[in-house]
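for the writeup, i need someone to sanity check this before i put it in the appendix. the sequnce is what the collaborator sent (i think, or maybe the updated version? ugh). structure was predicted straight from it, no edits. if anything looks off just tell me and ill rerun, i have time this weekend
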Amino acid sequence: MFRRRGRTSAEDINAEEGTSLNDGGVTPNDVKVLGPIDSGVMPNDGVTRLDLGSLLVPGAEGMEIRLEVDQASEAVVAVTVIDGSSAMQIMPFAAPRIDGIWDEVRGEMHVGLSAAGTVEEVVGSFGVELRSTVSVTTPDGSVVEQPVRFLGIDGPRWFVRAVISGEAGGHEVAPGLEAVLRSTVVVRGAEPMAPGDPLPLSFPEEVPAGVVEGTSADPEPPSRTSLPLPERGPEITEIR
């Protein structure tokens, strides 16, 4: 169970993106967050989104949407969006009605990442994020260090964690992947859940026009191997 901490709304403050908190003069809430979108205020924007239960993820030209599946339970546990040599894993969780949990989650992650290597808190496109490096084993057996960005967004009774890795993990911004995250809709539901519990994800009942289904046998370039993930299941591939 995550502890609850009060925080100032970020909507009234703007800050320069990519500024390290260690530089001084920037607080964790000095940025305006513009997404993901709560289903209660879902816009009529004409965007085609894949219905994955608690997440409605927009398709984007040239990107793939992959469902990460737990091998034991066969449940969908995360969504990964692939953009060339970059990837973004999205996971939704329950959160308190008022206070967010990113401050607490980020602190716990900072401790864990620091034990394995370097980690830095930076104000980015979605507020305070963590930037670190992880050791990745490529298909040829070699081990390389890969930059990773950990983003957290607090919403009304939900929290979304996004992990950007690959080429975009070493950049201050990832326009394509960030645009997908901003346009993603979170469906919290009315069920009571403890803060930190994962929101249920599901396989889509249908694939919208313009999005075609791929296969788990599709080749995956070394640069896409980023973080330890559950066994990959069916993939949904955006090609148009």
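The first strand starts at residue 19 and ends at 20. The first helix runs from residue 102 to 116.
thx in advance!!
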